[in-house]
Design brief:
2 domains, about 300 residues, Nuclear Transport Factor 2, Chain: A
Length: about 300
Amino acid sequence: MNIQSNKLVATLFGALALIFTACQKEEVSSSVDELSVSASTIAVAATSSAAGISGTSGSTTDSVYILHGCGRNTNMAATSLSAMPASVETYLTTNYAGYTLYKALAVYDSSNVLQSFIAVVYYNGKPVALKFDATGNFVQVLEQREKGDVPGRGWHNGGRFQHRNGLGKDSVAISALPATILSSFTSAYNTDTLVKAFRSADSGYVLLSRNNGLYATAYTGAGVYVNRITLNREKGQVTSVDAAALPALITSYLSATYPGYVFNKAFSIRVNGILKSYVVVIDANNTRYGLSFDSGGSFVALKTIH
């Protein structure tokens, strides 16, 4: 067999290896050649533009590492959204409207029994990796880290996930909000009371306000209105709650479902003085969520803010 034939065979075997391979060495990047999977991570572009999704050229330097946790004795295979249970697409469409699917993976144990699915999507230009069980039920949003932070605590000062340090550096004083945003908000929602504001990773702003209920309103960094979401299930009196005062069931759910999350703000909702529910606002991998829980701390609903 000549040299060119040997090269062709090697190329074919290499391509097949990318379709079905062990988690400890798997190439999953569709547009950035150097990004691969180790025994614990999937590396993807940190923005949709770097991934080539928005039509711009790719980048191998701007990446994040998703902690997939599939284990050394499991195999990962590329799949498609249509090959997953319909509930996966329903979940993505409901909670990440306008998302772009980047990678769909099926995870098998050493006996080739399907264990779970992983969907990596870009939402508002940022990657979100979600794990679903074999029947399509949502399990968790997988944690992301920068390369040097994969071992250890998962963040460093000055990094894209530095707000995990708990210092609240993404918080913005109401008085420090740009005048254009304050003017727009007070004009549109003049009966709301602003209670908290945050600066997003994309330089936008998220404003939390109460008005017989709880709302999240998002603006771009230039002050352009993005959306407004009602975070509570029922109208009622809104009161701030410290993280330490939340039911243990809520804290356990957040830790298991959004590993590496950052607590932003929590509220209780009371109707006629009776506790009805809790709303907790968190940041997970630079995407902000509002989660509703009943009075006992059981999860009820998710709202993806921005």
